[in-house]
Automatic annotation (TrEMBL):
<dbReference type="InterPro" id="IPR012302">
    <property type="entry name" value="Malic_NAD-bd"/>
</dbReference>
<feature type="binding site">
    <location>
        <position position="239"/>
    </location>
    <ligand>
        <name>a divalent metal cation</name>
    </ligand>
</feature>
<dbReference type="GO" id="GO:0046872">
    <property type="term" value="F:metal ion binding"/>
</dbReference>
<feature type="active site" description="Proton acceptor">
    <location>
        <position position="167"/>
    </location>
</feature>
<feature type="binding site">
    <location>
        <position position="238"/>
    </location>
    <ligand>
        <name>a divalent metal cation</name>
    </ligand>
</feature>
<keyword id="KW-0520">NAD</keyword>
<dbReference type="GO" id="GO:0004471">
    <property type="term" value="F:malate dehydrogenase (decarboxylating) (NAD+) activity"/>
</dbReference>
<protein>
    <recommendedName>
        <fullName>Malic enzyme</fullName>
    </recommendedName>
</protein>
<dbReference type="GO" id="GO:0005739">
    <property type="term" value="C:mitochondrion"/>
</dbReference>
<feature type="binding site">
    <location>
        <position position="461"/>
    </location>
    <ligand>
        <name>(S)-malate</name>
    </ligand>
</feature>
<dbReference type="InterPro" id="IPR015884">
    <property type="entry name" value="Malic_enzyme_CS"/>
</dbReference>
<feature type="binding site">
    <location>
        <position position="262"/>
    </location>
    <ligand>
        <name>a divalent metal cation</name>
    </ligand>
</feature>
<feature type="binding site">
    <location>
        <position position="416"/>
    </location>
    <ligand>
        <name>(S)-malate</name>
    </ligand>
</feature>
<dbReference type="InterPro" id="IPR046346">
    <property type="entry name" value="Aminoacid_DH-like_N_sf"/>
</dbReference>
<dbReference type="InterPro" id="IPR012301">
    <property type="entry name" value="Malic_N_dom"/>
</dbReference>
<dbReference type="InterPro" id="IPR037062">
    <property type="entry name" value="Malic_N_dom_sf"/>
</dbReference>
<keyword id="KW-0479">Metal-binding</keyword>
Amino acid sequence: MSTPIFRVALRGEALLTHPRFNKGTAFTEKERHAFGLIGKLPYRVNSLDEQCQRAYDQLQSQTTDIGKNSFLQSMKDQNWVLFYTLLTRHLRELIPIIYTPTEAEAIANYSHLFRRSEGLYLTFPNRDSMEEDFLEATNGKNSGLNFEAILGIGDQGVGGIGISAAKSVIYSLIGGIDPSQAIAVTLDVGTNNEGLLNDPLYVGWPHERIRGKEYDDFVDQFVQLVRKHFPHSLLHFEDYGVTNAQRLLKRYRDTHAVFNDDIQGTGAVTLSTLMAAVGVTKSKLCDQRIIIYGAGSAGLGITKQLRDAMVSIDNISIAEANSKFWLIDKHGLITESLPDVREDLKEYTRKDDEWREFRTSQTSDEMSEIRLLDVVRKIQPTVLIGTSTHAGGFTREVVESMAAGCERPIIFPLSNPSKLVEVDPKEANDWTKGKALLATGSPFPPAKMPNGKDYIIAECNNALIYPGLGFGAMISNSRQMTDTMIIAGARRLASLSPALQDPDDALLPDFGDAPAINFEVAVAVAEQAIEEGSAGVDWKKEEVREKAREKLWQPVYGEYVYDEDGEK
């Protein structure tokens, strides 16, 4: 790879404090003279390798994960190339530090750890100046991320920008998107977190959360600005609550490339994992009987993604595909007689007549709560997916009952963090005598098979697919993120499953290979966009791989030439 040449207009202190262009001690002697850096840096010129070694040694001196998170955030503020190179070289070790689970702690303490801005803060009382503020901050960027609430830790107000910033890092680290072309955004509409409202150091808007029409109008004002100024951008919605996630995605997905990670990202990586498992069992998606334990935004997103894939791949009707699912929430199986069923769940509601034996009495029309074990015994599922955060919800009796009616039970306890997982995969493996095909939402150590072999537990992590989905949509200038584009990316990921070569191997590739995996996903997405006419480029399908590689951002130092009219 040849060294890129950049024409840069910054000099001296302005250059050393610009994270995009700063090289620190890696500035060459020639560059130090050209940019007025002699005397502002110590004498010796370091290589990127030497800088990485120094930074890693400093990182290791931190004794806590939150301390390491703060150190890495500081490095990102100083030098992007060094930051991303260090992460790339220690990917498996450092992803949990900059992303889940450590980022959750950083978000919860955001106001007390605050040092500097890390994105765009659009606040409800300043809505009249939103366009001015938006243009001032974006200035040529073409990706947006924003949030509402953080799954697993609740309403964290303006601190939730931390998860948007972490997602933006993942897009660059694993997806290959130039970090100068992405921005983390928070729509600060207040908070209902009493701890934050009563905290004198809280840096967000100290007001109860806005809802209803005012909320919708504020979100729409932001989306219309994105559509007006960056019509080919990707708009990534992150951690929207269950009442808003589906309806906002539905409202905007036909008019812009909008992506909701909790619905579509979780759904896509779960689809990939299930497709790999179905490949092992040599069956079809539409042959499965699927229980979704937890009917929030993630559970419903998974359901819709799997349902749509059945329709697209197996050519069955939506009604027939819907009949393959049994959704369970905290009130039990979702049936017709269950009160206050959300509108977005109604197409998956089971008829009361199918569950007549669960009436509270022979003379009553009321249904008693239909528990998970009841459903497992009655329908003999082939797939059990947990998104409930109900720790231990997949009991030994549930798992053994499932295994009794299924040769290779497919069990995905996906709740995060690991302490909230529905079943420890080691126990599920033991209770099924090594028959289960397993994937989890958090990393777990291998389980032992009856023959003594280690069974690698696939980590059903959105980061294995969403950066590639986003990169594929962006490089193809797609006007939408269509279901067929997502399915194309999911099928490409599934095709790379180690289990397709060895049925007792992991259902998903190793997370350490995430950058290469996401590149393949991006190629598949862009190819599909071109084939279906969603793309805004005039490439041929056979050109996509080469074009994608040309657009792939990599953390390398370029050669700088001073130019007053260059980049700033």
